[in-house]
Each structure stands twice: as C-alpha cells, then as structure tokens.
Amino acid sequence: MWSNAASCPARTAPTASIRLELLAGVTGMSQRSELARELTRALIRCHSVTPQDGGALAVLEEQLKPAGFAIYRLRFSEPGAPDVDNLYARIGNGAPYLVFAGHTDVVPPGDTAAWRFDPFSAEIAEGEVWGRGAVDMKGAVAAFTAAALDYVATHQPLKGSIGLLITGDEEGPSVNGTVKLLQWAAKQGEHFDHCLVGEPTNVEALGDTIKIGRRGSLTGTLVVHGTQGHVAYPQRADNPIPHLLRLLTALIAPPLDDGSAEFDPSHLEILTVDVGNPATNVIPATARARFNIRFNDLWTPQTLSAEIDRRAAAVAGGARYELSFDPCNALAFVTARDHFTDLAVEAIAAHSGRIAHFSTSGGTSDARFIRNYCPVIEFGLVGATMHKIDERVPLADIDTLADIYSEILERYFDQAPV
Q1: TM spans, by residue (predicted)?
Q2: Strand partners, 89
Q3: Which of 82, 251, 302, 403 has its CA 20 to 30 A from that of 138?
Q4: Annotated binding site for Zn(2+)
C-alpha cells in the first residue's frame, strides 16, 4: 500500500528526453527493449482515464515525428458523447501497408489506497512495471511503437508503409475513437492491407493466443407491467415479478446454439433485475431486467433479437411487457487465415517458443471496426491483471513483445513483392 502524503512519487510529465538517439544509427535488440520499457513507463504516467488523453498521444508523437512519420492529431465530437483525441501516424507511400492499432485510454484505477504503488507512477519492482494500463494496453502500444521506430531506422528505403491508429475511446463508449478515425482515414484515400491490434490476448503466457475474431454483443431491456396493490389482497393486483421471472427463464433456456466452427456457444446473461419497491406491504406495478448476449457468427443482431422476441411471446400468457434492444455496433466476425496469420504465428514462436492458438473468445475490441477496412488480428500481453488493482507487466514480456512485433515487420515486408 502507498500513501499520497508520504510516498506517492511526483507526477512526471512525459518529455522527449526518453527518445533513444541511437535509433538514428545502428540499433539492436537491447535498444529496442529499452525504448519499449521507457515508453511504457512514460505512457503509464499519463492520466488518460477515458476520455482524457493526459498527454499520452504527445508522448507517441515526440517519438514518431522525428523518425519521419506524418502525424495527424484528430479530435472527434458527437452530441451525447465526450470529445476524444486520437492519433494517426504513417510512414511510407506504397503497399503493402501494415498498421498497428491500440488505445492509450485506461479504466479508472479504483481504490488507489489499495494499490501497492501509485497507479500512475510506473514503478518498477520485482522485475515488473506497475500501473494502470500497463497490460491494457500501454505496454503493447509502447512495444509496437519501439518496433516500428527500430524497423524504420534500419530499413531504408521502406518496401511499403507502416502506420499507427491510436485512440482514447476504447474503454469508453467507442463513439469518437477508432470508428471515426477509420472513417477519416478512408476519406483521405488511406488503404490498409493488414492490421495488428495490441490488445492483451494471451491467457497464461506470452505467445499462447492470437485473437482472429470476436463475438458480438447485444444488450436488451425487458419491462413487465402489472397492477399495484396491497399484498394482503393479491386478487386486486397483478404482480409483475412472477411474469418477469417466467419470461427471463424462457430467454435463457434452451441454449441459443451449440457453437460454430470458430466460436463457443452464444450465451445470455441477466445483468440486473429491478423493482424499486421499498415497501413490504405493496405489490409493485413494474419490474424490469437488463441482459446481455455474447453471440457467435450464427447470429446477426436482427436474427438474435427476433429469436428473443419469439421466446418471450411464447410464454408471455397475459403478461403486459416491453422488450427493447440497445443499438449494436459489435458484430461477430472471423479473420480468414492467410499468410499474415501464418507469419504472426511463426514470429511469435521464434521469440516466445510457443505455438499460439487462434481464439475468438473474450469481450469486444476496436478490431470490430477495423475488420470493415482490412484483415485484422490481435496480439498483445498476458491479460491476467488488466483492469485490476496492481495491474502490472513483467519487463521481460515487454522486451519479448517488442521483439515479436519487430519479427512480424521483418517477415511481412520480406514477403512483399518487389
């Protein structure tokens, strides 16, 4: 535990001083690792809780611009959602174009007194760097930035193009971040051939998992209307709660499906059941529930909502109810396996010693937007401590991840046509 008054380190403003001048000359593994480590720490020190940038994008710009990357800082707005700062960087003019994508925003640290160190101090202890965003996903952003800088410094002229798509809205509503950054890039005539997102995909050890797809996410609301009355005279009332329970049971069973070739079975989880009745002698007038369905590629939001409607109607009886669904921007998708997925597996094995397996599990990510523009895979750090108190990442994993990204760059452009 740390104390603000006694031992909280001073907030360190990120500066250009961490740039390794040796990248302008001969570089190697140790320099790339050093840059990845220092960039990770500089990014963690930025208070970039969604939707705040906290200086994180400036840290990246200070490294990328002197290396020749064209930098675009873009703020997007929309009524009802916070403004968000984003960064797009590109170097090179031709194809193939490999773009790395990620986010510098983080979830709130929670109870800061419960942390071993100040969550924005980026302390190093026991071979790990500690802080909010270390795993999700400032460590990966730092690693692919260091890999890209290293590659650019040692491969001139470039055989293609390298880019970065960085948002500050992934942990938030995802309205003014990647989705609009992609729309902006398309209007500029930008075309991506492949994308790698640095989300924390690994389960037990670095190198065990590549995400090649994501499940969809659909959220719904069920409201049942009854008739309020005295509990001693139930015949004069209509309790909505039994109706709600019957309807919810029908939504859960039987299972929605048995899974598909690439996905586990879809599942519905009840999130809340609310009546708002403080009295012990009153039958309530209304009961409501919220639920979320993580669905596979057997469904679309339209077919899934129709199935939920059908299930509710089949058991409704005389219940008066309303069933509605939130707008859905998270569809299930799978990236086809090709030379890019193969070379990623080979690069990961070369530096981790593990053969990564393909997965579509977990929550949503910004890959759901990118897949509309180019094939996309996800590979980052081990997600064991993401969003938790004392989030942290081994320094050795940052080193290895930077090496893997560097190997992917080497193989990607080596295989490109002359």
Answers
A1: none
A2: 71, 164
A3: 82
A4: 103, 136, 171, 199, 387
Give the CA dihedral 192, 196, 198, 201, nearest 10 degrees: 140
HSE, side-chain direction, 13 A CA sphere, residue 392: 19
Q: Which residues are catalytic?
A: 105, 170
pLDDT score of 145: 98
State pTM to two decimals.
Answer: 0.88
Task: Answer whether residue 19 shows pLDDT above 60.
Answer: no
Describe the crossing of helices 139-154 and 56-64 by its angle, rounded to 10 degrees.
10
Closest to 137 in 3D by CA, of 367, 408, 350: 367
Q: Could you read off the pLDDT of 322-338 as tens digits, one per residue?
A: 999 999 988 999 999 99
Q: Which residues pair with 377 in a beta bridge?
A: 196
- Maximum distance among all alpha carbons in the chain? 86
Domains and CATH numbers, the chain: 28-214+332-414 (3.40.630.10), 216-325 (3.30.70.360)
- Residues belonging to the binding site are 103, 136, 171, 199, 387
- The answer to whether 263 touches 213, Cβ cutoff 8 Å, is yes
Residue 24's pLDDT band (cuts 50, 70, 90)? very low
